[in-house]
Specification:
By secondary structure, the protein is an alpha/beta fold. Helices cover 35% and strands 16% of the residues. The chain has 8 helices and 16 strands. It is globular.
Length: 335
Amino acid sequence: MDINIKKIRNVLSKIKFKIGLDPKIEKTDDYEKYIPDSYKSVLIFYADFELAWAWRYSKALINNKKEVRKIALNERENASKIIELCELYNISITWATVGHLFLEECKNENEIVHPDIYRTKHFENDYWIYSDGDWFDDDPCSNYKDSPEWYCPDLIKKIMNSKVKHEIGCHTFSHIDCRDSICSKKVFDSEISECKRLAEQFNVNLESFVHPGHTIGNLDNLFKSGFTSYRTDYGNILGYPVKSLSGLWEIKGTMELAFRKKWSVDFNIKFYKKIVDRAIKNNSVCVFWFHPSFDITFLENILPELFSYLDKRKNEILVTTAGDYVKWLNRNDGI
């Protein structure tokens, strides 16, 4: 891209943010239906916890297994540091976890990997291209010690044993495209059933869902499987959840947490703090989401500042998990 075009886009993105167009702010006269008494706002953090599963069919990393492994191992290292930061500032996170990560090991059974999981057909979307072979071709059929980029029961236990109450959510078993046009009910149900089976072994009841790659679909099946909410990313929104026709609560994404390299570290910090300020001022629900594999600069220089700021304003903004927030919504909704 031309350098001048990049500069123009950088300036425009700052202008949109400064004049309040990004994120978009929804208005309502009855925000009390969405914000618990004594608070002015609610904030939910989602971590899309995926390791190598998110990147194996990435268009940006085709045939680059070395980089996929590097990203996954970096995510492992970052996740432990994030858990420590959460304990320091009492921040809860909803960890939208790929189900395969619960496994300590898996095996090739009669030349078939995970025979109980139905396969999606070949497809292409904005982020991935899956055009040949079997969906599980990259599964090492190994264990979390020898192939730590594909399994992490150790980290899941660390999250669950944290001094802070986190939530383990669901991100499908193998990071599939969930759109109805791509993913059949049979495929979706087999993935979710396996996720729930494995989670139960950890005494986890999966309730909160995040569609991989924002591929929204199979909502009726999701509700029938016992889930209560899903997150969307139809635009950066400071707003309010909506009860969908499926019976699920739609939790609208506000902003991805990432180091925006076009800006200085200081402006990145101001950017996220200002979003918190706007959420409080407008009595909105703020939903931050991130990939734990994010840039180390964000982890070391930006996230601690954001967490510290939230800790200072903890009497104004409730930081909670998606599951606990939906429980409150259902009580307030008379369910």
